[in-house]
Amino acid sequence: MSIPTAESHTRISRYGMVNSFIVKEEDGLTVIDTALKGTGKKILAEAKALGRPIVRIVLTHAHGDHIGALDELHAAVPDAEVLISSRDAILLAGDKTLQEGESGKLKGSYPGAKTKPTRTIEGGERVGSLDVIATPGHTPGHLAFLDTRDRTLYCGDVFSTLFGVYTTARANPLFPLPTMATWNKELELESAIELRTHEPSALAPGHGPVNIDALEQMDDAIAKSAEIAAKS
Questions:
Q1: Tens-digit pLDDT profile for the chain (232 aa)?
Q2: Domains delineated in the chain
Q3: 103 beta partners
Q4: Is the dihedral of CA 169, 12, 14, 33 positive or negative?
Q5: Paired sense of beta strands 54-58 and 28-32, if any
Q6: What is the spatial distance between Cα 173 and Cα 194, in angstroms, rounded to a whole number?
Q7: Surface-to-core class of residue 177, CB atoms within 10 Å of its CB (0-12 exposed, 13-18 middle, 19+ buried)
Q8: What are phi and psi of 42, to 5 degrees?
Q9: Rounded to an integer, what distance in angstroms lies between the CA atom of residue 193 and that of residue 4?
Q10: Cα–Cα distance between 125 and 128 in angstroms, integer?
Q11: Which of 101, 105, 196, 213 has its CA 20 to 30 A from that of 91?
Q12: Three-state SS letters, the chain
């Protein structure tokens, strides 16, 4: 289903659980994540309804439920930029080797893609109206994006909002999958705290509905994750 959530963006949801977002920009449309394989048709249909071209595809990270429709979408809009962090670009290429300074075990699905990024991006850059924020933890090169116009935070899998607001450093008992796929929970919690400092007006996650005025819920999610981290 296609769910308009604000003037600046549209949420494309598969099964009400896995999201892609279309952000309206002056030069066209930015797609944030491509969700599961087969979502390309829904994204293209929404772009057609909006009457604007897709000019860039931005990926929060390289898990399969976020890059699933990348190849089919890129085939339909081959001139669109494809952007991802330099670290997760390695994962997108199918290489799951830990890099220098990393430890532990990568979790979750990394199917890779035929599509290669046109360029990589890092925290501190801006893409259209979106400030790029480095948020490692769920994956080593995870990114979030803050819309500077309305302060919507496209947080990927740092937070989820399905059955409540949770960081993916702490499992939601009703929807534990994002936490099960988190590489480094300590870094993930740090990234959640960093995102809270930006005081977003809306939380737009990879999983769950867009949550307006979620600051208190973000605080609660962070506090509960920190409590569990302290006990472990």
A1: 344 455 789 999 988 899 999 999 999 999 999 999 999 999 999 999 999 999 999 999 999 999 999 999 999 999 999 999 999 999 999 999 999 999 999 999 999 999 999 999 999 999 999 999 999 999 999 999 999 999 999 999 999 999 999 999 999 999 999 999 999 999 999 999 999 999 999 999 999 999 999 999 999 999 999 987 676 6
A2: 2-231 (3.60.15.10)
A3: none
A4: negative
A5: parallel
A6: 24
A7: middle
A8: -65, -40
A9: 28
A10: 10
A11: 196
A12: CEEEEECCEEEEEECCCEEEEEEEECCEEEEECCCCCCCHHHHHHHHHHHCCCEEEEECCCCCHHHHCCHHHHHHHCCCCEEEECHHHHHHHCCCCCCCCCCCCCCCCCCCCCCCCCCEECCCCCEECCEEEEECCCCCCCCEEEEECCCCEEEEECCEECCCCCEECCCCECCECHHHHCCCCHHHHHHHHHHHHCCCCCEEEECCCCCEECCHHHHHHHHHHHHHHHHHC
**182-214 burial, b if ≥16 CB within 10 A, otherwise e?**
bbbbebbbebbbbbbeeebebbbbbbbbbbeeb
Tell the residue number behind the tokens 């006990």, with chain if given: 231
* Joined tokens for residue 164: 């409540």
**Amino acid identity for residue 228 in this structure:** I
Tokens describing residue 113: 């893609």
Amino acid identity of 144?
A: A
